[in-house]
Design brief:
The protein has helices at residues 6-29, 31-38, 44-66, 77-100, 103-124, 132-150, 157-181. It has 182 residues and is mainly α. Helix 5 (103-124) packs antiparallel against helix 6 (132-150). The chain starts with 5 loop residues before the first helix and ends with a helix.
């Protein structure tokens, strides 16, 4: 039984959440730069392998430290299959997109595709309720994609890889939502 006062535990949990958020933001903000730097040594597939190995290493250390074993009891395997398929697809598409076009454009295409695909998957498959803000966001994403991509060559692979990455992220996040809601 934890004997710390509730206020102290709440403050500790809040500070740990803030630290975790800052670390995540730092890692995410460096992902484009890391992709470019790693491209000097690794192919896109090699980068995905190195990143995945780092995640497995960190998760393994975490589970050893916490002395917990991950459990998949009661979880539908179909969303897990989608996660295991679309995580590397999205990572490879992201790496190829950044190496083909610049990081700013890649991130734009990823977010626009993720927003549009997430809206469609959420409303059709997950039966999420829509509001006018959802429809406005979808409309703005579609307009931005059209305006931003109109001056680009539609055959440029970096654009398509960025869109594929966003679609993969939307599918993966929908699978996470399905697991959470089940």
């Amino acid at each position: 039984m934890n004997t710390e006062p509730k206020e102290k535990r709440d403050k500790k949990n809040t500070s740990m959440g803030t630290i975790a958020l800052l670390i995540s933001a730092l890692m995410y903000s460096m992902s484009g730069w890391i992709t470019v730097v790693m491209s000097r040594t690794f192919t896109a597939y090699g980068q995905v392998f190195v990143r995945s190995a780092a995640v497995v290493l960190v998760a393994g250390i975490f589970f050893i430290y916490k002395k917990n074993k991950p459990s998949l009891k009661g979880i539908d395997p179909l969303p897990l299959i989608f996660i295991f398929i679309f995580r590397p697809v999205g990572n490879i598409a992201f790496a190829y997109s950044i190496l083909t076009i610049n990081a700013t454009n890649t991130i734009f295409y990823v977010y626009a595709a993720q927003l549009a695909a997430g809206f469609i998957i959420g409303t059709t498959l997950l039966k999420e309720r829509t509001t006018w803000t959802n429809w406005t966001a979808l409309l703005l994403a579609a307009i931005a994609l059209y305006v931003f991509a109109i001056g680009k060559d539609a055959t440029e692979l970096g654009i398509w890889f960025g869109l594929l990455c966003g679609l993969s992220e939307a599918i993966k996040n929908s699978a996470y939502a399905k697991i959470k809601n089940d």
